[in-house]
Write a structure and sequence with these properties.
12-stranded antiparallel β-sheet; 305 residues; alpha+beta; globular; single chain
């Protein structure tokens, strides 16, 4: 999973950033191209505009083949003088440390599009606290705990890498309301989405204190044929336990959970809203994190030493 992003402030820088993002999308489609490419936008906690291109490859070897063709562009000192921030965050999970889940069987997202198929029967490890952990094969033999710390390694004043730690938990959790109409749409707009946004903003602004390294609440871009009415939260955590603790105990997630269940009850379980998520627990060497001209709160720079 590769998140290739640009960040900027102001209209003039925005034009430069969008041109860079278009170049990144072009690169993702060349050589050993990413199997699935999406674009999304968000405003980060420092008030900067961001746009990302997200690419998925079937394995690390495919990604490395692609990278060999494009690393010279990233290494070029010209990247440090673009006038906007530029970053790449690569997450290379083992299949034993990855799970993805969909609320409906007729539409895939993210890593599911790349894989192209789903399990034949509904998964049983769902609908209870701890189900996410149980869906990770590695949880049968590993505690999936964290060790070590994030450290910033500066190659030049404007080009920084983050050396990450063992056990980082990554989640992308999304909503698709493109088929939602009538009463359900009103309930989504008036009840579910505002509560969801409040939870996402809490993690973005105050998440470090509870083990969330960063959080982004993204809107999927409609550029180049992207479907409207889709959003997702994407965050990295110290470990799976920190993510689970927020989900089960924190008021911001409880509010999301309760509002959703009340809407489900009001609609008697008949929902057109589609939900999905993908979760990975990552080894230290399964994370490649580079930031060029980015502010200190960007991604895994946030709170790093």
């Amino acid at each position: 999973m590769g998140y290739f992003g640009v960040q900027w402030r102001g209209d003039a820088e925005g034009e430069k950033a969008k041109a860079l993002l278009s170049e990144l999308v072009r690169q993702l489609g060349t050589g050993v191209a990413a199997r699935n490419v999406e674009r999304a936008v968000f405003i980060d906690g420092a008030g900067w505009d961001n746009e990302v291109a997200i690419g998925y490859w079937p394995d690390e070897a495919a990604y490395q083949s692609w990278w060999q063709q494009h690393q010279a562009w990233w290494a070029d000192p010209a990247r440090e003088n673009e006038g906007v921030g530029l970053y790449r965050e690569l997450f290379l999970p083992r299949t034993t440390h990855l799970e993805t889940l969909f609320s409906a069987s007729d539409r895939l997202e993210g890593v599911g599009i790349m894989l192209g198929e789903r399990s034949a029967e509904p998964i049983q490890e769902h609908g209870y606290w701890g189900g996410m952990r149980d869906r990770l094969p590695a949880s049968q033999t590993e505690a999936l705990t964290s060790s070590g710390a994030r450290k910033i390694v500066s190659e030049t004043p404007r080009r920084r890498f983050v050396s990450s730690h063992e056990g980082v938990a990554l989640i992308r959790s999304g909503q698709d309301w493109s088929d939602v109409t009538g009463e359900e749409l009103a309930l989504y707009r008036d009840r579910i989405e505002p509560t969801l946004r409040a939870g996402m903003d809490f993690l973005r602004d105050e998440g470090l204190a509870i083990g969330c390294h960063f959080n982004r609440y993204m809107q999927v871009s409609t550029v180049n044929g992207g479907k409207p009415c889709r959003s997702f939260g994407m965050s990295a955590w110290r470990d799976l336990a920190a993510m689970e603790n927020w989900a089960e105990h924190h008021p911001t997630h409880k509010a999301i959970f309760v509002d959703f269940l009340q809407v489900v009850q009001a609609l008697q379980g008949r929902l057109d809203l589609r939900l999905f998520h993908e979760v990975a627990v990552l080894q230290a060497d399964a994370q490649i994190l580079e930031y060029i001209g980015c502010h200190d709160q960007t991604g895994m720079l946030n709170g790093a030493v």
